[in-house]
Amino acid sequence: MEFLTLNTGTKMPLEGFGVFQIRDEAQCEQVVYDAIKTGYRLLDTAASYMNEEAVGKGVKRAIADGLTTRDELFITTKVWVQDAKSEETAYEAVKASLSKLDMTYVDLILLHQPMGDYFAAYRGIEKAYKDGLVKAVGVANFYPAILANLCENVEVIPAVDQIELHPFFVQEAALENMKAYGVVPQAWGPLAEGKHGIFTDPELVAIGEKYGKSVAQVVLKWNVQRGVSIIPKSVHVERMEQNIDIWDFTLTDDEMAKIAAKDLGHSEIVNHDDPAFVKMLCGRNIH
């Protein structure tokens, strides 16, 4: 496993494991345990995923069984917009997440969406950082202009911005903007949520065959080689094992370019201008 150094000096694994949409408590606890047993050390959850308690239980079991230690793990959670209407409520939301996870700190806290008074909410997670409740602070779904405005007006520059990044939504401008501010990019939906015929794409299949790898492994490695942290998810152990088995090959510059050429220039997973998107936000069913 390779690591990225955040602007706090903290090291974050390049690859982690996400638990979005795994809401059944028993299943989520087992999946987290299986992920740790498979070798994942970065675990990504959120208040809006409604599974922080299950994540905490899975982590506790893994530690009790000697699979890892808390110091070896990198735990990320996120403050939801409805819990971040002010500095005070955001700070309390961090403490609520810690309580559900049954942890004294998390390694990274993200402000989940740039909605409402996100500057006040960000001050709340800055306070949590200063008080030692979190090791690093960041944001999610903050696109270039919003991220730049935030970075120019806060005391603690975000360590991470978690956004949609995959071969059909390359977002080079967003990556360049993050680089300018020293923000690490992290991809949600790194496999495009299975859309665009990604797993049967002839070029991706051919690249995979060259290395004896699956399309998923090729696509994940493509993002990693761009310096993007990835958090694929699966409830199946064999896929967990496959997704983490990407460290023994390197894509050529030509292959990297061919994959990037699939860029559509926009998301087909989330339409931020669609009223249904806002409804989905209110239903807490969003990355």
Structure overview:
With 287 residues, this protein is α/β, with parallel strands linked by helices. It has one domain (11-282): NADP-dependent oxidoreductase domain (TIM Barrel, Alpha-Beta Barrel), CATH 3.20.20.100. 41% of the residues lie in helices and 13% in strands. It is built from eleven helices and ten strands. The strands form two sheets. An eight-stranded parallel beta sheet has the order 3-4-5-6-7-8-9-10. Strands 1-2 form a two-stranded antiparallel ribbon. The radius of gyration is 18 Å and the shape is globular. Mean pLDDT is 93; it is low at 271-285.
Give the arrangement of secondary structure elements.
Layout: E1 3-5, E2 11-13, E3 17-18, H1 25-38, E4 42-44, H2 52-64, E5 74-79, H3 87-101, E6 108-111, H4 118-130, E7 137-140, H5 144-151, E8 160-164, H6 172-181, E9 184-188, H7 202-211, H8 215-225, E10 229-230, H9 237-244, H10 253-260, H11 275-282
What number of domains? 1
Give the low-confidence spans: 271-285
Helix fraction by DSSP (H/I, runs of at least 4): 40-55%
Share in β-strands:
5-15%
Query: What is the architecture at the second tier of CATH?
Result: Alpha-Beta Barrel
Regarding CATH, which class? Alpha Beta
Biggest β-sheet description: 8 strands, parallel
Series of secondary-structure elements, N-terminal to C-terminal: EEEHEHEHEHEHEHEHHEHHH
Rg calculated over all Cα atoms: 18 Å
The 3D shape can be described as globular
- Mean model confidence by pLDDT: 93
> Could you give me the name of the CATH homologous superfamily?
NADP-dependent oxidoreductase domain
